[in-house]
Design brief:
InterPro entries: Leucine_aapep/pepB (IPR011356), Macro_dom-like (IPR043472), Peptidase_M17_C (IPR000819), Peptidase_M17_leu_NH2_pept (IPR023042), Peptidase_M17_N (IPR008283). It comes from Mortierella isabellina. The chain is α/β, with parallel strands linked by helices and 540 residues long. 31% of the residues lie in helices and 20% in strands. The protein is built from 14 helices and 20 strands. The longest helix is centred in the first third of the chain and has 21 residues, at 103-123.
Length: 540
């Protein structure tokens, strides 16, 4: 079972120490992280009555002599105010956190980054119990600390593993961003992303489709209002999921189709639908990938991992909405049984697909999953997530995840959640013109290749759109001809259409460097944004 590192809960009682040169340290932390900022050119610590004037003055004097000027600067002080080690992190100008757009999101990000920066500065100092300044945002501070402490080292020799460090809230939140957002909710958001990180980071021999399904079933089994259903290849055959089966044929590992139903809302209310691509290892099939960096393809189930992580968070928070999530799970390997380039398969919705490139397999397994979810469960909205195309990495790099959607409303909801979580999205074009090449098959309704890397992410999105039951294509020309002067469908949402968004997370799949709460390795993005989206939907 994957271990989730979560901090012990602490009460928030503190005592006033007056003018003694001490912190109020009720929980006997051996180290603390403090926020500092510039206020009209003067350096200041976060406002709290639980730091004595003498301690505050002493710390500020030391900081002023250490060139502590820029946002992100961190200094570790020793035996300050009776605490063995104190990491002080510069938040920058106070007015940047209190003025302009998205002030609440800025406060969250400042607290998130400061907590992570401070924790990382203390990890190597042999500390065991760290108090985190929550005066800027308790939720953000808990998120940052939880994310920064993530380490996938369970396969290493015990002597090489990082020590477990307990973190808890220190001081008090002066002005909370949102009454719902607390230290505890921040831990849940952070743990949800860490779960996705761990799933993605686990080597493929230890995270097969069968193991993935078992892990999630075990993890969610004890939570309320959730049901996990694991289905096998025989079930998939009865459903007519030949696209999924065709991808899985080349592997000895049996496929799984994981369905999670969370019933936190009113009975009968349409659910939010989530779909995650779950290729637990992608060698490309017969269209074999180059060996360079192929090891990263253990993370090609990132869509399934982020969906599982989000469901964990939604269930732990007990959000009042219904969610149905499905993740098709398989490996994509070459063998004598593998699907060959040129083969034709018929998807669950009856459309035939000519497989020109077996390495364009993600769209195949998602095709069956999208049709199953949209036709059988009738969700009000569907969001699918997939490490789908190298073209998305080329287009947006590792800053934004690309979103293709037929719904302005759903885009706005995703954009707001991403900005609030500092885990942003960028809207991409969804236009029938990108479907032209895939309609140009002489033997099938569609082919799965499109135009390669030129607009590859856009053509992949248009391919997926053909398998969402309940979306009417605004351009019905069978030849696929479409002028760039035609209205872009994403601005002409029909009232009859189901709201659907495809999020290509190929570019944000992994972090190349460790930076504050971003840990080197598989990123688990955008798990927190999905949880936040669900929270906002539940509130409305």
């Amino acid at each position: 079972m994957l271990a989730l590192r979560t901090a012990t809960r602490h009460t928030r009682r503190t005592r006033y120490v007056g003018q003694l040169r001490l912190f109020s340290n009720k929980h006997n932390y051996d180290a603390v992280v403090l926020d500092a900022y510039s206020d009209n050119g003067r350096l200041a610590l976060s406002q709290s009555s639980h730091i004595s004037n003498a301690t505050r003055t002493s710390i500020l004097e030391q900081l002023q002599h250490s060139n502590f000027k820029n946002a992100g600067d961190v200094r570790v002080l020793y035996n300050a105010g009776g605490v063995k080690q104190v990491a002080v992190v510069n938040l920058g100008e106070l007015k940047q956190l209190t003025h302009g757009d998205n002030v609440a999101g800025k406060r969250l990000e400042a607290a998130r980054t400061a907590a992570a920066t401070g924790v990382k500065a203390l990890i190597s100092q042999g500390v065991q119990k760290i108090g985190i300044d929550v005066t800027t945002s308790a939720h953000g501070a808990a998120e940052g600390a939880t994310l920064a402490l993530h380490s996938f080292d369970r396969l290493k020799n015990p002597k090489s593993r990082k020590p477990l460090i307990d973190v808890g809230p220190f001081l008090e939140t002066v002005e909370n961003v949102d009454p719902f957002l607390t230290w505890e909710t921040g831990q849940i958001y952070g743990a949800s992303q860490n779960l996705a990180r761990s799933l993605m980071e686990t080597p493929a021999n230890l995270m097969t489709p069968k193991i993935f399904a078992e892990e999630i079933a075990y993890l969610l089994a004890g939570l309320e209002k959730v049901e996990v259903i694991v289905r096998d290849e025989e079930w998939a055959k009865r459903q007519g999921m030949n696209a999924l089966i065709g991808v899985a044929k080349g592997s000895e590992e049996p496929l799984r189709f994981l369905e999670i139903q969370y019933k936190g809302g009113k009975e009968g209310d349409a659910p939010l639908g989530l779909v995650g691509k779950g290729v637990t290892f992608d060698a490309g099939g017969i269209s074999l990938k180059p060996s360079n960096n192929m090891a990263l393809m253990k993370g090609d189930m990132g869509g399934a991992a982020t969906v599982a992580g989000a469901l964990y968070g939604i269930c732990k928070l007990g959000l009042p909405l219904n969610v149905t999530a499905v993740t098709p799970l398989c490996e994509n390997l070459p063998s004598g049984r593998a699907t060959k380039p040129g083969d034709v398969i018929k998807a669950m919705n009856g459309k035939s697909i000519e497989v020109l490139d077996t390495d364009a397999e993600g769209r195949l397994i998602l095709a069956d999953a999208l049709y199953y979810l949209s036709s059988q469960h009738k969700p009000h909205s569907i969001i699918d997530l997939a490490t789908l195309t190298g073209a998305m990495d080329v287009a947006l790099g590792n800053v934004f995840a690309g979103v293709f959607t037929n719904s302005d409303k759903l885009w706005s909801q995703l954009d707001n959640a991403g900005q609030f979580m500092s885990d942003p999205f960028w809207r991409m074009p969804l236009h029938d013109g990108y479907l032209k090449e895939m309609r140009d098959s002489s033997v099938a309704d569609l082919n799965n290749l499109g135009v390669g890397r030129s607009g590859g992410a856009c053509s992949a999105a248009m391919f997926l759109k053909q398998f969402v039951s309940g979306i009417e294509s605004p351009i019905q020309n069978i030849s696929g001809d479409a002028s760039l002067d035609d209205p872009v469908p994403q601005t002409e949402e029909s009232d009859n259409d189901i709201a659907w968004a495809h999020i290509d997370i190929a570019g944000v799949m992994d972090s190349k460097h460790s930076n504050n709460y971003h840990v080197k390795g598989m990123s688990g993005r955008p798990t927190r944004s999905l949880v936040e989206l669900a929270r906002n939907l539940a509130d409305n």
